[in-house]
Amino acid sequence: MKKILLFLAVSAMMTSAVAQQDAQLTHFFFNNQTFNPGATAINDKICVGLTMRNQWVGFTGAPKTGVLNFSMPFARQNGFGITAIADQAGQANDVSVKASYSFHADLKNGRKLGLGIDAGIINKGYSPGFKAVDAGDASIAVGSAMTPDVGVGVFYKSPSLYFGVSSQKLLESKVIIGGTSETHIRRHYYITGGYNYQMNPMWLLKPSFLIKSDGTVPQFDVNALAEWNQKIFAGVTYRYQDAVAALVGYKVGDLSISYAYDFTTNGLKEPKVGGSQGTHEIYLAYCMKPPTPPKPPVYKDVTWL
């Protein structure tokens, strides 16, 4: 049974690395900038967000992900952001850094359309401690290599609704690691949306979804989040053929903190025989309104009085 579970784990990691190379996040609704540059600073605030994910606890070499986002508005209808992602699965290590820009078309009545692009680099490789069983196998990669990365996105936002379409890894680069192993980075596509339903003055319901695909393997997440008094929130996420997650969070002024636990529903869920004991994910964010620029002083010529 342990060998079967180990095979499933390795297969799932390979699927994650090949079919879904972008980071998988339960707090996807807080991380729109990560996969859609059109959402960059569309809330007109200066924000810093950190997501830390420890997936499939109980497996040696299970995936671990960290995502850091920074965004800020500038020149009225523009947004600038930086996203850094570190993704580790076994001995494989991927690191990407990209800058994003978004133009916010004002559609009036609090509605905006963000048109965005991001560009950066991806570093793919294996940790220095990796030792292949067959050192002469040219398909086994050792070392690391970098390649450019580009993404585009459109993001619509109103006071009660958001919807976005985007694509990442547009270049579909081929990365040669160690001079022998070739890794193909597949293009990714995203569709996301959410709605804010005010049930009463104290309670707000926020359903949302994310559909993602590399053109061959689709996956979708559906979330329902309830928020009380703009302070406490809790919700449930379902990820197709993978997990059901519960999350809870709290807002203190401009600071938000949230914790999610994924209950594994695929073939890796048997902890008594070395299977997955679930996934932990923490989200931290700080958002503030930009400081209001001081008004220029007004001088009057006393000769005109």
Overview of the molecule:
- The protein has 305 residues and is mainly beta.
- It has one domain (2-289): Outer membrane protein transport protein (OMPP1/FadL/TodX) (Porin, Beta Barrel), CATH 2.40.160.60.
- Helices cover 7% and strands 54% of the residues.
- It is built from two helices and 17 strands.
- It has helices spanning 2-18, 32-35; strands at 46-54, 64-74, 78-89, 92-108, 111-126, 144-157, 161-168, 174-177, 181-184, 188-195, 197-198, 203-213, 218-228, 232-239, 243-252, 255-264, 279-288.
- The strands form two sheets. A 14-stranded antiparallel barrel has the order 1-2-3-4-5-6-7-10-12-13-14-15-16-17.
- The chain starts with a helix and ends in a 17-residue tail after the last strand.
- The model is unreliable at 1-19 (pLDDT under 50).
Write the layout of secondary structure elements.
Layout lengths: L1 H17 L13 H4 L10 E9 L9 E11 L3 E12 L2 E17 L2 E16 L17 E14 L3 E8 L5 E4 L3 E4 L3 E8 L1 E2 L4 E11 L4 E11 L3 E8 L3 E10 L2 E10 L14 E10 L17
Antiparallel strand pairs: 1-2, 1-17, 2-3, 3-4, 4-5, 5-6, 6-7, 7-10, 8-9, 10-12, 11-12, 12-13, 13-14, 14-15, 15-16, 16-17
